[in-house]
Amino acid sequence: MNDKIQIAIVDDHPLFRQGVATILNAEPDIEVVGQGASAEDAISLARDLLPDIILLDVDMPQHGLNAAQIIANEYPVVKIVFLTVSEEDDHLIRALKAGARAYVLKGVSAPELVKILRAVWAGQTYVPPALAASLILEMSEVKPRERTHTNPLDELTERERQILEKLADGLSNKEIGQQLHLTEKTIRHYMTNILQKLQVRNRVEAALLAQKEIG
Q1: More confident call, 37 vs 193
Q2: Domain count along the chain
Q3: Residue 143 burial (CB < 10 Å; 0-12/13-18/19+)?
Q4: Does residue 53 sit within a domain?
Q5: 3-state helix vs strand vs coil in the chain, percent to 5
Q6: Range of 41's domain?
Q7: Burial of 213 (0-12, 13-18, 19+ CB in 10 A)
Q8: pLDDT by residue (tens digit) across 202-211?
Q9: Can you tell me the distance from the alpha carbon of 114 to that of 144, in angstroms, rounded to the nearest whole number?
């Protein structure tokens, strides 16, 4: 795979946001695919682009933590990273509870930020060492969220259901993309999202589940 790590940046300070984009775009394996300034922008970018990673600030219009909660629930394939000045324990804990993979302070150096983002993309997590102690105390009391849905398809967005139905009809990613006017890569991203939400291992299991639930 030669695909670059696709990253969206959401911060309500344009100069800072553009600076981060310039740093990341200079890396051969990273591509900034979208930018925004609010929680609403973040949700739209996650929905429309399904980037590998989305960078959020805590303090932004409509609040970054609200965006993280929605993105984690609706688009779990998108890895959430907070890049913020806030060193408040409460913000760190709420961010990770909301589904963030990393919490990075804005004083970080450019090489360190790039290193952290590559680690998150590879499946790792990160919190600043100075904030780790309070996190350990709080996380020891966290219980897994219980699922409230009886029908697994209830968690899918309208677009995801549309793709799943076409998968159940036997169409390939390329054929689905042609019918929905989306690229094959975008369909692959959606398919990863669908498999995670349905908690199935592959396309065949997803198709069988769809046929069972949709009829």
Answers
A1: 37
A2: 2
A3: exposed
A4: yes
A5: 55, 15, 30
A6: 5-139
A7: middle
A8: 888 888 888 8
A9: 30
